[in-house]
Every structure is written in structure tokens, then in C-alpha cells.
Amino acid sequence: MARQREVVVAALAVALSDWRRVLEVVAACESSEEAQEALARTFRFTRVQAMAVMDTQFRRVTRVDRERIAAELVELHREIDEFGGDVK
Fold it and tell me: How far apart are CA 62 and CA 86, in angstroms?
């Protein structure tokens, strides 16, 4: 579970650090499916990561939420390292 969440949180951290570019990519698309594919291509996200980015609410662009996401990513990395990758 920690590994799966880490993959999603890592994509959110990337997207939130470059949110203007994410908005440009999404705004240029005709549909949410197209936007998802464009995000995957542009940022090299998996389908799951692109879906998570598309589901992100823009309130998360605030500094506090970006810091919270970054802190969660650090914690997930620590958990994974601590348990030797044996975290579900």
C-alpha cells in the first residue's frame, strides 16, 4: 500500500511543483481522457498517476498543501526504506 501511494504522491508532487504547466496541458485538451493521455506523455506519468493528477483539486496548489504532499512523500520513502521494500 505504501508503495502504491508513493507512486501517486510522487506524481502529485511533480504536478503541484509545475501546476501552471499542468493547467496548460489540460486546458489544451478536448476531453478529460485526452488530458489524461497528454499528462502521461508530458510528465511521463503512468495512467494511475495521470488520473490522480486529474483528480487533484486546485486548492492543493496552496503552499501548505504542497508542503503536506512533500512531507507525505518523504514519510512514504522512509517507510519503504525501513521495511526494505516489503510494504504493501
Answer: 33
